[in-house]
Design goal:
The structure is a single chain. By secondary structure, the chain is an alpha+beta fold. It has two domains: about 1-100, Arc Repressor Mutant, subunit A (Orthogonal Bundle), CATH 1.10.10.10; about 105-155. Helices cover about 45% and strands about 15% of the residues. The protein has a three-stranded antiparallel sheet with strand order 1-3-2. It has a three-stranded mixed sheet with strand order 5-4-6, with no helix packed on it. Strand 2 (about 85-90) and strand 3 (about 95-100) form a beta hairpin. It is globular and about 50 Å long.
């Protein structure tokens, strides 16, 4: 009985993702559906906040038994971000994350862990910085990114 419910939930999620892709103007190809299901296993209506790199998604695709090049994963993720399905967030040098939460919010980037953390857009410390930036650029969407790194120890 439990397996039947899981299968039904997966089919519902796949159908909803297929409709989302179509509504956004993208054909629901096998590669797009594979990546979409990895990012949104519960469908677009029950988003699990995640920050993934293209390499992480590529690894998950390979583990699922699907053959897909890293270039195809990058292209798919970039299309998803262009069409508002994901948000592309720049991390450190040569590192981009793809965020499943598309509403405006702030981030903390932990450089030593290469990890991105969500911060509510209503967090007072972040909000005051964003408000200052909005004064400089009226009618703009301002999001704050804080980079945290630990100093490296110098050998003596």
């Amino acid at each position: 009985m439990e397996e039947t419910a899981k299968l039904a939930a997966a089919q519902t999620a796949a159908a909803a993702l297929k409709e989302l892709l179509k509504k956004r103007g993208l054909r629901p190809t096998r590669h797009r559906m594979t990546v979409a299901l990895l990012l949104f296993p519960n469908g677009p209506q029950n988003v699990i906040p995640r920050h993934c790199t293209a390499e992480e998604i590529h690894h998950a695709v390979q583990n699922s038994g699907t053959q897909m090049s890293l270039a195809t994963v990058y292209n798919t993720l970039n299309q998803f971000s262009q069409y508002g399905i994901l948000r592309k967030v720049s991390g450190g040098a040569n590192c981009s994350f793809y965020d499943t939460v598309t509403e405006p919010h702030h981030h903390i980037y932990h450089e030593t862990e290469n990890r991105l953390e969500d911060v509510s857009p209503h967090t007072p410390e972040f909000q005051s910085i964003a408000d200052t930036q909005r004064k400089l650029a009226p009618n703009s969407n301002v999001e704050v990114m804080v980079r945290v790194s630990r100093p490296t120890k110098i050998a003596s």
